[in-house]
Structure formats: structure tokens, C-alpha cells
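Sequence only, no structure available. Ideas?
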Amino acid sequence: MSVLQGEQALHALGALENDYFVVAHSLQDPETGEDYSFDFKYLAMPWSLRRHFFPAPNRYSDPAKLGPAAAQIIQLYEEIVALALQASNVVRIILNDISHMLLTYTSYKRIAPLIEGFSLKTLKLVKMIAEEEAATRGGNKAATASSLYLRLVRREIVFLVEAHKIYWSRSIVARSRCYAAYSATIVRATKNIARVTKAGKVHLRLRSTHHKLAAPQPMTPTLASNAVQHAFNSELGGTLRRLRAGRFKKTPDVEMLLRLHPFLQRIQLPDLQDMDVLSNERTGEDASKHGAGQSGGRFTAAAASSSIIDAPWQGSAIPSGIEGIISVTRRHADPDRLQVGSIGDADQWTREATRLANAHTVLLLDGGFLARPDAARYLHSMVTAYSLVGFWGPASFVAEMLATSIRDALALDPSSTPLKLSLCNALATLSLLCGPLYEPLLQLGAVEEAGLILKELSVGKPDSYALEDAQLALLLSQGKRKPFDEESQQEGDEMIEDVINKFARVLKKDPSCLEARLGLAITLGTAEYYKLADGTDSLAAAAAVYKQLATSKPLLFGRKAAVLLAQATSRGDAKAGERAVAALV
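Reply:
I predicted one. C-alpha cells follow.
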């Protein structure tokens, strides 16, 4: 059954929901033949998109009279839907975004052709990537070359949606004045999609099988792509504007930073020399070609002593060289540095964190370093710096690049345990950073793969990664609560008891483990919020654990412990939590 036939059958049965149809019965697993059901918001072709491609009654009311672009868009949309079972979740999100744009924006006749052009180019690229994912069974892996290119596509869509909201929020007079700028924004986004498409065809080798066999290419770093570097520069440009406008968190998100710190600490960055040797062995290139001349001028001694970083903050303690900045960032992210005893100390911490974020942005703005074998070293420091000021969007963008870089290194040395563990923790970092952004599918896909990697590493030594296993289980349970379907949320709820027990087992072996105690406190807090832990006073237990944390780190946890203890006391017996925690650990 084709997608169109499935649509007609479901429409005849009255199976329409909110003007969408469900195509589950037209999708089967090619190996098992089993039918699959998907959320209609992410897999369904809007019925109104076929009947009334534009709200204008005489233009697209009859599918037989559709213009060339509209007909192509509908055909591409249906072809991608047919591939959706084997493609990643991001493909389905983009389909939903495109259908929303077409149904909403094309009612304005002046911009309809521009939106059509953007949608057509986008769907052509998404179809090529979906076909590649279906052929390789890549699934929902995060931080792959294809997922990164899809993220670049979605980035342009989100940018266009925001521009549209701003434009149509203005008065008629104001819109007439800035129409040229608005239309130029759509044209620019379309050109960016064309750039991503061109780079994707080359890097992902999205060409015919005959072409691939006739012209095999050596593996090149994903981040070396011009499209990736252009998106990186654009992201950092926006980040720099936010920093200079003062739009950042004035106080650190202590709990988030404490959760991020162990994941970032466990990432063992690949050695530059070792990666050069491995890359040369794989591609057959001469090692002499990888000399300093190709490493990019940003990282020469001259650049290290440049005044580019000293100019805005004369006399500051920020070193001028990138290596010094990395070192200072590492020290500033240490949990002990988060213990500030006064408002003045907190302001000083924030100023230093802001300078570090600004230093990374200015020094690395040209993106040329992404082609270097040691790019992960600088990306790792950028993730840390942006997290310190609460820039979760830029931090997650750079974190995906970091994980992609490590995945490329692992492809050169598939048996490397340190690289596998580093990829696991990079994916966990990405998943955690996606939480505040409400990116549930990326958050869930990243932590699920991280769990699979850790499971592989734990074979024969189950206790070696007990803390990591508990932390990933907490991330997974939280990630499963974000998506739209009730089944996923129920799975996340059912995991809570297991997560509590995992952290408790770690604490029994090492009562001084701050990460495990914090994880237990967060899990108990989650159980209380959603009323999940049967037979346990979760609020009192969480208050008791935070009280224990406050004993060793009063400046970090004292306030939260006091608030929770007050709430538990108002309910009744606050000692019940201490008894519950004592029974656990």
C-alpha cells in the first residue's frame, strides 16, 4: 500500500485527527513485516496540504492544477514519509516543520514563491539523507555526519520561523518598510540550504552507487566541511552578540554544572600525533602533508600572543593564548570554585566565566580549527565555557560537534576503549545540554546510544562503571518523560525506582561520592514531582539527601536543603526521609 492509498483509506474510515492522517498501516519493517505506528504529528502528511496547498481558493484547490514547485514538494514529502521508518527522528521533525511553514506562511502571496523554493531545496537534501540512513540502518544515532547535516538544516528552519514571527508581529506600515530585509532573509536561508546540500553530497557521498564505486573517497573529518564551518561561525557570531549585550545568566546553574562536570572530565581527548598517524594510515597520505602549514593560523605562537583577547578587558587575568584559556576554563569549572560565599564573590565568578566564554568565541570565531585533528580539545573547552554562563543552545551545538569529532576518531581506531568511553560521555553531555532546550528526540537518542556503548564496555566487569551507569539511567528516565507519547513517559516513570537503587548501591560502596549523592537527590526530587516512588516519602528523602550534601558543601546545597526540609516538615514527619535514606544506603 502506498502512502497516498493509506491516506485515502484512513480518510474514508474517518481516522483523521486534527486534520492529520496516520500512515502507520502503510509502513512495515522490511525484515519482520511488522506494522509500526508513529505519532501523527511527526509522520503524517496534513490532509489540508493536499486539498488546499495554499489557502487561496483558486490556486491549489485541485491537486491536478498544482504548480511545478508545489507538486514536487508534495511528491518529495510523501517519498520521505515512506522512508521514515528507517530514517532518524530528526527527519520526522523537519517534515513537521516544513508542513507547518507551507500551511502557515504561503497564505501570504508575496512570499509564497520564496517559501516554496526554500522548502523544495530542504526536502531534496532531507530525502537524500533519509535514503542514506535507510540504506545504512543508521537509526537515531546522534552526532553522526548525517545527523549533524540535518541539524544544520533544522537550524535554518528555526531561524526562518523566528524571522517570520518578528516580521508579522509588526504593523502593516512597519512590514512594508522591512519587507526587503525579510525576503532577503528567506533568500539567504535558501542559499545556506544549497551550501549544506552541496557539502552533504560531497562529504556524505550522497550520489549514485555507480559513482561511489567509480570514485571512492578516503574518510575526511566531518567538521572539515565548509557548510559545518559556516554554521559554526554563524552560531558563534550570535553567541558573541549575546555576550556583549549581557544576555547571560548572572548566577551559575550549580546543579546543572555539577551534573555536567563528571561527563566532561571523563572525555579523554585524542592525542594530536596519534590521530595524525592513524589518519595517514587510513588515507595513505604522507605524514609530511600534515605539517604546521595546514594547521590554521589561529594557533600559531603569534596568534597566542595576539592582543585580540586583551583589547576588551585591559588588565584582566585572562591569558592571551588559547592554551592558557583552556587551562583557566578547566580550573574555573571545578566544583569547588562554585562555592561562593557572598554576592561580590558570585559577581566575580560570573565576570570571569563571561570573559572565558568571550575569549573562546573571539579566538575561535573563524572556525578554521575544525579541520585540525585536535579540534576536540578546543570544542571540549568551548562546551565548558558556554555552560558556565548558561548558554545551553551554543553549548549543545558545540557538544554535538565534539561528539562527532570523537566519533570520527573512533572510526580510525574502532577498538580504542578510551575513545569509546569518551564518545559515551560526549553523548551524555549532549543529552544533558538538550534538556533545558526541550530537544527531546536528540536528548533521548544521544543518551540511548551512550547507554549501549557503556553496556558494551561493562561486559565482564559490571561494577567498573556503576556510577556512570546510574547517571545515564537518570538521564534516560528524564529523557523518556519529554517526548509526546504516553508509552515513553510511562517507561521513564517505571525506571525511577531502578535509578534510585543504582545510586544507592554506589553510595554503599563509596559514601563520599558527591556525584552519586547528588544523582540520588535529583532522582528523589523527580519521584516527588511526578509522585512516582511507591512506599517512599520522596520529598522527605530528597530533603535528607540534600541535607547530607549541605554538610560537606554548605554554599552549594544549604539553601535548597533548607527549603526542602521546611516543605517536608510542613507535611509532617521530616525524620521519615532520613529513615528512608538510611534504609537505601
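The CA atoms of residues 242 and 248 lie 7 Å apart.
Hope that gets you unstuck.
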